[in-house]
Amino acid sequence: MYNKVTFKEFAQIFKDNIIKRSRTAKGTSETLVSEKKKKLLLSGKELRKQVEENTEKLIEDVWNSAQLLQGTPEGIQMRMESWNRIINHNLRSPDTYLEEYEKLCKEAKEVSKITGIFYSLNPEYRTWDVNYTAFRIPLLELDFAMDNFSHKLSSRLYKMCLSPSTRTLHKETQLLAYADHMIDGVIHPWIDGCGRNATAMVMWLSIIFPEFKLPVFRERNEHYASILDIEAHTRYFELCLE
Prior knowledge:
Layout: H1 7-21, H2 44-66, H3 73-87, H4 98-115, H5 142-162, H6 169-187, H7 194-205, H8 220-225, H9 230-240
Helix pairs in contact: 1-2, 1-7, 2-3, 2-7, 3-5, 3-7, 5-6, 6-7, 6-9
């Protein structure tokens, strides 16, 4: 199902997009977003080197998994979780946020007694609130939000599979902007690496249909200037796909 791009070309653009977008890839362990976010195990050159190694593995995984499509909601969720493990390999201890996660689980049980709603909590999702996303999604509802996103993205892919005529440049632009906007600009679920996970999804989507093109990101400031507004972010992706 690949377009005519080679793995070498795909890998180079993927790497460039990560470097432009990610502060972690530049060796910065960013904790300013919240006082509850903890520093990574590495910093500076060591951090850059580990991120480079993780990115190489991430690129291979995205490229290989595109052959399988796996466009079901479960498949999409599985891919993102796999990418998250690759992205964060050797960057933090598995129990870094264990105490916070257990506290959140206790809260979920108490709320469930009142609401009758079962809350599924992913230990890889953040345990602190953020104030820089388009919407304020409660911590207990991050799993619901990701499940809803996976189903909506799956539905879009299913329609494109059924009707090749819908796989236009305009539709690709909308699809990539939507995925990037939701993962990093709306839900922002992961403890670390939301931008890299969103980039992986964008790159995965860009090679699953032969009509699609590879997006070339602009610099970080320009990329994030529009991410909270889906219409503005769609216009931004038009530039990325030129």
